[in-house]
């Protein structure tokens, strides 16, 4: 997941109050973006997590019905470490997500319900490094659906069945930020919150114990991304994001 670019990163805007993070699996945000979330919540911003799946297919040695419970528990604990109190799970099948209207519908409903200023998702480019490190299908489907669902949420004639019980169209999301994209041109200084990001990743203990030979080092891994991003920002540690604009619908 090393960023290939050497160009300076432009700081992300911070004149906003509510952010919604929509990603495919528990742990997706923790592999690079959690320290940024901690930075924002430390400023008094509200962050909401929406997990499209529960990651139930992510632990080879654990049956999905048990993994679902474990991974949801770990995600809630992980989110709390970076100041996030609201964590939702849509319950879609792990490993089988498809970019299509049903996924857009689910995410548009979340956007309309929470009414965020910005939306955060994970890298959904074909690779992590712009070359060979292939991305995962659920990440790609979710990120693409997030972009369209943000636009859908502002159009009252798309998924109009959602507009009841006080739910209204929401067209005030001006940007979507994709963490860890190989095309990132913006970033966040996470020097002060890097340790909280590490702790947030470590909270996914059951998942991490199944990676490779079990010797995965969360701090070493995150430092390998945060230092290059920090260099591009002119700080110690950084988190890089690709920005998509929605100023004009």
Radius of gyration: 17 Å
* Element-by-element helix/strand order: EEHEHEHEHEEHHHE
Q: Number of helical segments?
A: 7
Return the structural class. alpha/beta
Strand order in space, largest sheet? 1-7-8-6-5-2-3-4
Characteristic key phrases:
249 residues, 16% strand, single chain, 8 strands, alpha/beta, 35% helix, 8-stranded mixed β-sheet
Task: Explain what you see.
With 249 residues, the chain is of the alpha/beta class. The protein has 7 helices and 8 strands; from the N terminus they run ββαβαβαβαββαααβ. The chain has an 8-stranded mixed sheet, with helices on both faces. Helix 4 (137-153) links the parallel strand 5 (118-122) and strand 6. Helix 2 (64-81) runs antiparallel to helix 5 (194-202). The protein is globular. The mean pLDDT is 95.
Quick description:
The chain is built from seven helices and eight strands; from the N terminus they run ββαβαβαβαββαααβ. Strands 1-7-8-6-5-2-3-4 form an eight-stranded mixed beta sheet, sandwiched between helices.
Helix and strand layout, with pairings?
Layout: E1 10-11, E2 18-23, H1 34-42, E3 46-51, H2 64-81, E4 86-89, H3 101-114, E5 118-122, H4 137-153, E6 175-179, E7 186-189, H5 194-202, H6 205-208, H7 218-233, E8 238-245
Parallel strand pairs: 1-7, 2-3, 2-5, 3-4, 5-6
Antiparallel strand pairs: 6-8, 7-8
Helix pairs in contact: 1-5, 2-5, 3-4, 5-7
